Amino acid sequence: MYEYIIGQVIETTPAYLVLENQGIGYQILCGNPYYYAGKSKQQTKIYLHQVVREDAHTLYGFKTKEEKSLFLRLISVSGIGPKSGLAIMANEDHTGLIQAIENSDVTYLTKFPGVGKKTAQQLILDLQGKLGDLLPEGAEVAQVVVTKADNLALEEAMAALQALGYSEKEVKRVHKNLLNSQPDATTDEYLRTGLRLIMKK
């Protein structure tokens, strides 16, 4: 298993880069290979994760140990393979990703390719409360927790409405109404009121 590799980037493509080390060119899949395009004449360190399958040995590359660790935790979730994990990592707002998981923000998570509602809920179930150590320096875990406390009941109620089969448009309309009229309600209260509001329309 590889931890990292140091070499010279000699090619970048939309999906991968080629890094040369001691005369061997390694194909490394990255969320954003073009990040390394300006480093072609420098010695570059890339953290690696290797996935071995019957038909391929694939290297995935990351700028930092923290990025690699986040990727490994993502792909530990059922429904998230390396391809989906890399697509999620391509969005470099990792603080936003962690906060979305902490806040049970299914809508945010389903914006990533290959992540449907069920997978987003599994991400939240498996990783919530387990990513605080990966927040960038200066970001406060407490801030994430406070945001979660402020929004979790309403977001859970909205997720329950969607699970019942109500459209995203209906749920968004109810969300705005409830946020303004009942800022401190419980999930149960939000859900009951939301159902009443939908039935009135």
Automatic annotation (TrEMBL):
<keyword id="KW-0234">DNA repair</keyword>
<feature type="domain" description="Helix-hairpin-helix DNA-binding motif class 1">
    <location>
        <begin position="107"/>
        <end position="126"/>
    </location>
</feature>
<comment type="similarity">
    <text>Belongs to the RuvA family.</text>
</comment>
<keyword id="KW-0238">DNA-binding</keyword>
<dbReference type="GO" id="GO:0016787">
    <property type="term" value="F:hydrolase activity"/>
</dbReference>
<keyword id="KW-0963">Cytoplasm</keyword>
<protein>
    <recommendedName>
        <fullName>Holliday junction branch migration complex subunit RuvA</fullName>
    </recommendedName>
</protein>
<comment type="subunit">
    <text>Homotetramer. Forms an RuvA(8)-RuvB(12)-Holliday junction (HJ) complex. HJ DNA is sandwiched between 2 RuvA tetramers; dsDNA enters through RuvA and exits via RuvB. An RuvB hexamer assembles on each DNA strand where it exits the tetramer. Each RuvB hexamer is contacted by two RuvA subunits (via domain III) on 2 adjacent RuvB subunits; this complex drives branch migration. In the full resolvosome a probable DNA-RuvA(4)-RuvB(12)-RuvC(2) complex forms which resolves the HJ.</text>
</comment>
<dbReference type="InterPro" id="IPR012340">
    <property type="entry name" value="NA-bd_OB-fold"/>
</dbReference>
<dbReference type="InterPro" id="IPR010994">
    <property type="entry name" value="RuvA_2-like"/>
</dbReference>
<comment type="function">
    <text>The RuvA-RuvB-RuvC complex processes Holliday junction (HJ) DNA during genetic recombination and DNA repair, while the RuvA-RuvB complex plays an important role in the rescue of blocked DNA replication forks via replication fork reversal (RFR). RuvA specifically binds to HJ cruciform DNA, conferring on it an open structure. The RuvB hexamer acts as an ATP-dependent pump, pulling dsDNA into and through the RuvAB complex. HJ branch migration allows RuvC to scan DNA until it finds its consensus sequence, where it cleaves and resolves the cruciform DNA.</text>
</comment>
<keyword id="KW-0227">DNA damage</keyword>
<dbReference type="Pfam" id="PF14520">
    <property type="entry name" value="HHH_5"/>
</dbReference>
<dbReference type="InterPro" id="IPR036267">
    <property type="entry name" value="RuvA_C_sf"/>
</dbReference>
<feature type="region of interest" description="Domain III">
    <location>
        <begin position="149"/>
        <end position="201"/>
    </location>
</feature>
<keyword id="KW-0233">DNA recombination</keyword>
<feature type="domain" description="Helix-hairpin-helix DNA-binding motif class 1">
    <location>
        <begin position="72"/>
        <end position="91"/>
    </location>
</feature>
<dbReference type="GO" id="GO:0003678">
    <property type="term" value="F:DNA helicase activity"/>
</dbReference>
<dbReference type="InterPro" id="IPR011114">
    <property type="entry name" value="RuvA_C"/>
</dbReference>
<keyword id="KW-0378">Hydrolase</keyword>
<dbReference type="InterPro" id="IPR013849">
    <property type="entry name" value="DNA_helicase_Holl-junc_RuvA_I"/>
</dbReference>
<dbReference type="InterPro" id="IPR000085">
    <property type="entry name" value="RuvA"/>
</dbReference>
<dbReference type="Pfam" id="PF01330">
    <property type="entry name" value="RuvA_N"/>
</dbReference>
<dbReference type="InterPro" id="IPR003583">
    <property type="entry name" value="Hlx-hairpin-Hlx_DNA-bd_motif"/>
</dbReference>
<dbReference type="Pfam" id="PF07499">
    <property type="entry name" value="RuvA_C"/>
</dbReference>
